[in-house]
Amino acid sequence: MGDPRFFAAPDAVSLSDIAAATGAELRGDGSRVVTGVAAIEQAGPSDLAYLDNAAYGSAIATTRAAAVVVARKLLDKAPAGLTLLVTDDPYRVFAQAAAKLFPAAMRSAPVFQERGIAPGAFVHPDARLEQDVTVDPGAVIGPRAEIGSGSVICANAVIGPDVRIGRSCSIGPGSSIVHALIGNRVTIHPGARIGQDGFGYAMGRKGHLKVPQIGRVIIQDDVDIGAGTCIDRGSTRDTIIGEGTKIDNLVQIAHNVVIGRHCIIVSQVGISGSCTLGDFAVLGGQVGLAGHLDIGAGAQIGAQSGVMQDVPPGARMGGSPALPMREWLRITAILRKMTRKGAPDEKL
């Protein structure tokens, strides 16, 4: 059996070109070229690696990499003669360099690897597709849907009636989009569900009466939405995902939620209805938000936290129920000490 590589070997890129594109300070031979990226301990003589964590500082002494993107604060770890790209933010520079080498990895590619509308795709005659739209086999595009140039609709994706999808978007295999307006350069990974019913019921002793969900989902430019993530449409208002926000796999976003610009939402987060997140808010993995909360701009919520009250801008919270991070850490430390103190006397 062969050993396939799913991303083709890139053209060689000189270190001087990478330095110019990223703003990193080049120390060494700028004419040297790289054709790949790798972890610092695994890199070969044509690879670019990076170092931004002192815990891996010993690896730079023995690396075989062509060059290393290194944090300025770790320069003393680098051996003489190693070509360096020096920066205060090595991970970001490394990401820029990797994107330059492997642009195909920046968005989902057509599964069928053909351009245009493939045989076996179902495009309603009333749908409007600009030039250079790719539609894989099995994809369904409903009436009056509009899709901008350069967008890719992968295999078995479903685009509902009247949906708008902007330019240079990627809609992953098996995903579904209904009742939604999508901006430009949006990536939706496989199996995501956008625009389905919100979970709204008028509860009572005679049973639970469904509340019609007649809002939309609006996703602004440059948003990434992970595999298996669900974003419900609004009930009477719109569910909104702000520009540049990045959402991991398996996230649930309920009806009427408004998420600001450039937020980070990590896997298995659950956001209840009508919550608002300010710009640049961060939710760690498995965070749960109760309904109708306001999470301020720049707030950071630690993993597995249960948030049941508003969070002010810039706050750092942790625990369940969530508390200011220092308070939560102090309580955790006290409980740990109490437990350890009593441990020797405990008997089963």
From TrEMBL:
| Transmembrane domains' residue ranges | none
What is the annotated signal peptide range for this record? Answer: none
Specify the superkingdom: Bacteria
Q: What class of enzyme is it?
A: transferase
Listed HAMAP family? LpxD
Xref: Gene3D superfamilies:
Hexapeptide repeat proteins, MurE/MurF, N-terminal domain
Keyword list, A-Z:
Acyltransferase, Lipid A biosynthesis, Lipid biosynthesis, Lipid metabolism, Repeat, Transferase
**Entry's PANTHER family?**
UDP-3-O-ACYLGLUCOSAMINE N-ACYLTRANSFERASE, UDP-3-O-ACYLGLUCOSAMINE N-ACYLTRANSFERASE 1, MITOCHONDRIAL-RELATED
Q: Which gene encodes it?
A: lpxD
Q: Which family does it belong to?
A: Belongs to the transferase hexapeptide repeat family. LpxD subfamily.
Q: In which pathway does it act?
A: Bacterial outer membrane biogenesis; LPS lipid A biosynthesis
EC id: 2.3.1.191
The UDP-3-O-[3-hydroxymyristoyl] glucosamine N-acyltransferase non-repeat region domain, residue ranges: 32-99
Q: How does it assemble?
A: Homotrimer.
Q: Which GO terms describe its cellular component?
A: membrane
A GO term (biological process) for this protein? lipid A biosynthetic process
Which CDD domains does the entry link to?
A: LbH_LpxD
Active-site residues (renumbered): 255
Which species is the source of this protein?
Terrihabitans soli
The name on file for this protein is UDP-3-O-acylglucosamine N-acyltransferase
UniProt KW Acyltransferase keyword: yes
Question: Which reaction does this chain catalyze?
Answer: a UDP-3-O-[(3R)-3-hydroxyacyl]-alpha-D-glucosamine + a (3R)-hydroxyacyl-[ACP] = a UDP-2-N,3-O-bis[(3R)-3-hydroxyacyl]-alpha-D-glucosamine + holo-[ACP] + H(+)
